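Technical annex B. To support the medicinal chemistry partners, we prepared a structural model of the target in complex with flavin-adenine dinucleotide, based solely on the information shown next.
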Amino acid sequence: MDAQHDVLVVGAGCAGMRAAIEAFDAGADVAMISKIHPTRSHSGAAEGGINAALGNASEDDPETHAFDTVKGSDYLGDQDAIEILCREAPGDVYQLENWGAVFSRTEDGRIAQRPFGAAGAPRTAYAADITGHVLVQVLYEQVVKRDILTYEEWFAWKLVVDDGRCQGVICWDLLNGGLKVVGAKTVILATGGAGRLYTGTTNAYSCTGDGMALALRAGVALKDMEMMQFHPTTLAPTGVLITEGCRGEGAYLLNSEGERFLKDYAPNAMELASRDVISRAEQTEIDQGRGIEGNVLLDLRHLGAEKILERLHGTRELSMVFMGIDPIHEPIPVRPGAHYHMGGVDTDAWGQTSLTGLYAAGEVACVSVHGANRLGGNALMETITFGKRSGRHAADWALANTTVTVPEGVVTDAERELKALLDRRDGERPWKIRDELAATMHENFGVFRREDQMQRQGQIVDGLRERYERVVVEDKGDVFNSDLTQALELGFLLELAEAMVVCGIARKESRGAHARPHDFPERDDENFLKHTLVTSVDGRPRLDWKPVTMTKWEPKERTY
Ligand SMILES: Cc1cc2nc3c(=O)[nH]c(=O)nc-3n(C[C@H](O)[C@H](O)[C@H](O)COP(=O)(O)OP(=O)(O)OC[C@H]3O[C@@H](n4cnc5c(N)ncnc54)[C@H](O)[C@@H]3O)c2cc1C
């Protein structure tokens, strides 16, 4: 063992840092592992804001927030977890403010809140359109202030499981090379999402679903893996995000005929309907020939230069840099892009998984507060509230228990496996498989899903997994061997894709992000008001189901 801690947090985005701070404050010896510098985590890319019922812009309360979230989830969210999120959110946002988060302000100096999709009240606190950047900096300051150790540029590759408990992590040291073993009484996965499964994605290159795959390999179940959210406003072809904050500030979506087409899909909420509804509307317009080169248009012009420059300056810059378009003068071409994984590691409301000592929080986890469709602004809130809760529980557990064992065999097995991969001299390059995976997931497991396409995707992923067995890492070196880590990430992505397809085929209904207009166009509460659960048996996914927790909201038809 190279080091040992009470609590080891894998990932240093909003969820990981918030968890580490809480564990530290609870008295635990805590460290973080991150494959990139903490402030480069994808959380820093969040633009639009964070949801809490502060009631600053109009009347609002946690109960309304909870109902909006339940409805937004298409009733697949667990209502006990949603109630916790909405109840603790205001206090958690004020805590961030007290730590120095520079939220935008109302005229009278309170935290300003903008309207966001499917929210009954303006509820999204924001710092212009760089909210994530601000939160990451503030949390990092708190980490530095507490002198919390970060194993930076260490790649977590395997969990150590001994005696039915998670007792540490085996990492590859990116800077110096070599395997490092860190023992811990509790491990919190906070590794973020897996958008890189798709070609057009808003997610950073680091979002490869590592923690989900680590949990799956350790025998822990993944929940609702078919639920990948497509964000309605991303730039072609890269998938760079144009924030929902634009629509929150009043931007229109237009088709090639210059019509605000949402009148036909969500006549009340229009551009502020939920993301699944808008992405489907856009895709329908594009498929029926009312798009413009595969896009629709996001029109900000009527907001005026002053508002755009004050509240959406980052968006203007992105659109000028990536599209050569100044939204003050021209509409921005946008299309749906893979954005957020509602699914993830199955946890309870304290972040605990079924494996003692293993926790998960943030996008890697599925508590589940987002169910089949996440509301914009709820993800950042989840990272903070459930980061805090898992940090607290993991610390309490660690402080009440003493031993950590990392059996020698676990380490020698890992060394042998790594050597076999690096010793391979010929075979296929990982990037080819990765590109094929991302392109076919986009084609066959996108906004709309068809049985035949999902079946085909299952076979494609099978084939890619076979080819992956012969993948060759050309860089044999120790220093910044990103060739190696990208190959390992690809292995993770392939297993997650397989899990997603299995769940997608099994869910024979349309709910939230899972839309099957051709064979099962309706939501089917009688048969499918339940979570999918996937565990790995001999490296292959096994599907189970788990009931949804209801507290006070009966499923109703969902219209906006
Ligand atoms: C462009 C964009 C804009 C968004 N805007 C908003 C918004 O306005 N409001 C909102 O609520 N949500 C938004 N979201 C969603 C939200 O930002 C994310 O869900 C959330 O920030 C994820 O935080 P996280 O801490 O779980 O993961 P991340 O911030 O992605 O951090 C993951 C961490 O895990 C580490 N890691 C991963 N794998 C490994 C490994 N194998 N070994 C070691 N370390 C590892 C990384 O180094 C990183 O530190 C947005 C998302 C995107 C992509």
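Notes passed to the chemistry partners:
The first strand starts at residue 3 and ends at 10.
DSSP finds 15 helices and 19 strands in the chain.
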